[in-house]
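Hey,

The postdoc asked me to send both predictions to you directly instead of through the lab channel. I've kept everything plain text so nothing gets mangled by the mail client. Protein one:
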Amino acid sequence: MITASSSPRFSRLAKCVGFTALLTMTSAVQAAEQRIISTDAGSTDILLALDKGADLVGVDVTSVIPPQLKAAKLGYHRMLATEGVLSLNPNMVVGSEHMGPAETVAAIKKANIALLQLPAARDAKSLKENIVKISAFVHSEQQAKPLLQRIDQSMAKVAEHQLPPNSKVAFLLQMDGKGLRLAGQGTTGDDFIHLLGGESLGAHRGYQSVSAEALLSLQPDVIIVASRDMSRSPVAMLLEATPLLKHTPAGTQQRIVAVDGRQLVSGISLEAMDALVDVSAALNAAKPAS
């Protein structure tokens, strides 16, 4: 378990290729005002948890920040305008490995702005690694300790309520006016299912449109529906639009649960871990699968 910046695990991460040099580059920023741009919702989530919200000068369109913060919105993380980024005069940029376009990334490096790009977290281990790297990058290692402990506590709660063996799970995206999409391999929905101990019914890659009849034939034991509109119950909306799902094992055993899709937009984030705990508890409270 990664617990502190002084741990051997932290030291190994800090010594990865290029990362030590990056920390040296940011050491001069430590004493000065930090002006941070986050181009990824997961990175923004971590920075806010590290109490770096006041240092954010810009975020991508998927990032959710408190209304009192005045960070500029920079658009989609794969299509960042060079002028928009540089005009904010950042001295640190944090984002995903998919940040782009290439000319914007090149311009950031040419301007000698410290840049940290990380892969999206797929599980608790990779989320903890991202927290360790970001906390070192912004010199907030001490603030990372409770976050790492929080992840361990969340996973312990989920472990108490793992799904029964061989539970078939359908993770659905609820699209306004565009039907349902079933999560397949390589998606956050698929990762979410595996963390719960279930087996994903999506054998394809990515998200794929699916009909109510197809879902009925799959006979899911559990259905998780993700929606970005939580003003009305996503489960109620799902069953109203596709009443056939009431006749699946998930429907008859009341094991259809909702999750806020905004918590899963950038992989397994801190918010996604909170959602995982909530879904695990909700399924545990429902009738057990036969």
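Protein two:
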Amino acid sequence: RAKEKLIMVASIKNIEKYLSNLYSKLVFESIIESYTVERCKSICDWIMLTALVNPSLYELRKTADFSATPVTLLQPYPNWKFEIIDKRSDVLTMGTEDSLDFVMNLAQETEQVSDEFNYGDLLKKNLDFKYKNAEIMSLPQKVSASQIAHNQNEDYFDKVLTKPTFINRSAASSVERGTAHHLFLQYCDFQLARDDINSEVERLMFHGRLNEEQSQCIDSVKLSELLHSELFDRIIRSERIYREERFTVKIKASDAFEDYANISSDAYVIMQGAIDLAFVEDGRLVIVDYKTDRVGNIAKLVSLYKKQLELYKQAMEQSTEYKVKELIICSVHLNRYTSL
């Protein structure tokens, strides 16, 4: 934003007619109604409407309507200077003499430019200009934590995500199962689910958290075993639990993308996402990320998602008052979990 002075320029074919038309839309010659703003055709219209009700631009109002009276407003208004440069005649001024002198001097300097001026050199200089941060021009402004994980393991996720459902029906059902298990773990009462997981599934269906198809995807045996693990003992004992906690934080580009690791620029990106679960233990956070990938061992999940959880750590430490003490990947398919 301009700190001291903001200069705006607009080109208008018939300034008198243009100003007269805008002036006629003012209510009681000084009130700009909302419907008038909505019907404006350009930013110039908006600016000129406010100029016409600015007490410091009475001469502009007289150009729009010679019978216009000065404006008196209760609230303070910025002191504007306004000039009309009319190519049909001389310069008309509605500002100070200094501003008029500036315009005239600029015109004289333009006329005195030598015919021998080398425009080719100037053009080449401009075309050869190198932006000092050219290496970050392709950097996205906003990313998600899951997108970063996918970018770093493209071969794996291409195989998992890009097969059409008419070729591989099991791929579609895997996604559905993953969604169903995530929804259950997001909304269930852990203690009630421990006591009777099928009753908890029915309760979530009754409250609209799960539909019929999703309830049939739930592997109640594996989930029940997982819910009776030591991890969920810790979660239930926790003084505070976060579920599907969304965040928007600023991180260094080098933390998000390996390609920018050696770039000296202090470029940042906005990262958005949501953690599956986090809980407070001994005054610090433990982050738990549920995974439903059908892999052979949990070490594979660690290699795929370690970066994502490290970014979750940054995000939660920025967006909460807690430091993170532990990162846990929890595999629903393997019915196992591990700390990073």
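Summary for protein two, as requested: Residues 298-319 form the longest helix (22 residues).

Thanks,
C.
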